[in-house]
Amino acid sequence: MGRLIVLPKFQSNEDVIDTFMHRVVPQIYKIAARDTLTNTFNSPAETAARKALKNILEAEQELNKQQEAARVALASANREKINVIEADEAAKQIQIYYDHALRQDDAALYYLYKIVEVIENKFGGEAAGISAVGEQVARKAIKRLANESYRDARHAPKAGDVIKKWTNTELNRCFEDTKKVVLAYFSTLFNKT
Fold this sequence. Notes:
Number of strands: 0
Number of domains: 2
Number of helices: 8
Oligomer: single chain
């Protein structure tokens, strides 16, 4: 065919040349090479192995299709979630308060309490909010910490009250409780029948 192929000198040149000429060159140049009779014959074990490999490759293709479909479904569900939450006015206000709480440790409890109030107002009061959203223990913990007068998060201290800063442990716990309440509220946005 007018092509010159130079092979490097190697310890077992005959095997390397045979493999290269009959397997590699035909793939590179898309030419038919003559196979030996041994290579032409398929043993029962080779036939079984080829069949098993073919089945695995077909299964892999099907799994790849399913995986891609699942990724698309997940991305669509994520976009839908964002749209539903952003369309809810209470959820928008909750996110604003939460962002303020994250940025202002000294006033974080005030904003976390406001989140609870937004949810209660959405449902028409504390009892209705608890009934609709649940997470009563977390909600009460947030309110208790924010309402304790010596912490000055919601109420001005009375004369003689000692103002004491809340601890990082208490603040972190309050953030966790607020997440529980908010995520439970977000769930109500998707439970509409």
